[in-house]
Amino acid sequence: DGCHCVVHLVGIIKSSENNSYEQAHELPCEALVAAAQKAGINHIVALSIIGSGAQSTNDCFASRGRAEEILLAGDVPVTILRVPMVLGENDFASRALHKKASSNVAFTFRHLSLEQPIYAGDVMHLFVGRCSILVATAAACVRFLGILDNRLYRP
Questions:
Q1: Which residues contact 97 (CB under 8 A, 6 or more apart)?
Q2: Over the stretch 32-83, which tens digit does the pLDDT of each residue have?
């Protein structure tokens, strides 16, 4: 009754012995789809990354692609927002980039990559906005259908 939209922000950019891409991307999506269907959620908005695709030769991108497919195969409508690398205050990637940028030696970060990082706060605003639009649209549709229903079936 109170939750209409779920925001899914789970993901890693580096796997480890204790945290595989499957554990971080695919398994949470399976659990989310089952829980959302059971709870009657109206929409899922999920974060993904530019370059994702189940057929990718990059293990991270391939796992993200499989995770997207899991979400899209469920009964709950899904919006997948693919963004470039997300950087936040004092996170691992931000600290690593700051350290390299502060050194006396020039570096390139995936020099063939054309995407620019995006700030985590901007991503959050995007997700909150998307959910607000979905909830407002659903509420407007319910109100409109209620008006039609009252006009058509008035006793």
A1: 87, 109, 117
A2: 999 999 998 888 888 898 889 999 999 999 999 999 999 999 999 998 888 8
| 134, two tokens | 């979905």
Rounded CA separation 4/14 (Å): 32
* 37 torsion bin: left (phi>0), alpha (psi -120 to 50), beta (else): alpha
The strand ranges marked E within the chain are: 5-8, 43-49, 78-83, 86-87, 118-119
Please list, residue by residue across 114-143, b when 16 or more beta carbons sit within 10 angstroms of its beta carbon and e when fewer do.
Answer: eeeeeebeebeeebeebbeebeeeeeeeee
